[in-house]
Amino acid sequence: MKSLDELRKIRDQVRQELELRSGRYRAKVVVCMGTCGIAAGARETMKALLDALAAHQVTDVAVVAAGCRGFCEQEPLVEVQVGEAPAVTYGHVDAAAAARIVAEHLVGGRTVQELVFR
Question: Does the model's pTM come out above 0.85?
Fold first, then answer.
């Protein structure tokens, strides 16, 4: 740690992680943002997810970044966990797929089967 800004950044990250565990969110979306994911478009996927959540006025879903999951050929990977249900991992998630995941899975409650990573 070299500066007060770095310490603040760490503090904010820890607070965010604690909020995720507190149960204030009904769902969590994890976007894999390792170098392979970023190269495959994970930043655009993350933005599309956030835009779609805003468009649907969904405020009780946490969207977080994670590292590489080891399935580079399936990137960008997105994991969705709603409540205590098992997590669903989606592969090759571009902006259009992100919009479908929000509309169908997070809003509509139905897994988008053709996008599920197998």
Answer: no
Per-residue pLDDT of the chain (118 residues; tens, 9 = 90+): 578 888 787 777 777 665 655 557 899 999 999 999 999 999 999 999 999 999 999 989 999 999 999 999 999 999 999 998 999 999 999 999 999 999 999 999 999 999 999 8
State how many domains the chain has: 1
Structure-token pair, residue 73: 């050929």
Where residue 74 sits, what CATH number does that domain have?
Answer: 3.40.30.10
Is 1 inside a domain boundary? no
- Cβ atoms of residues 87 and 95 within 8 Å: no
- Tokens 């997070």 belong to 106
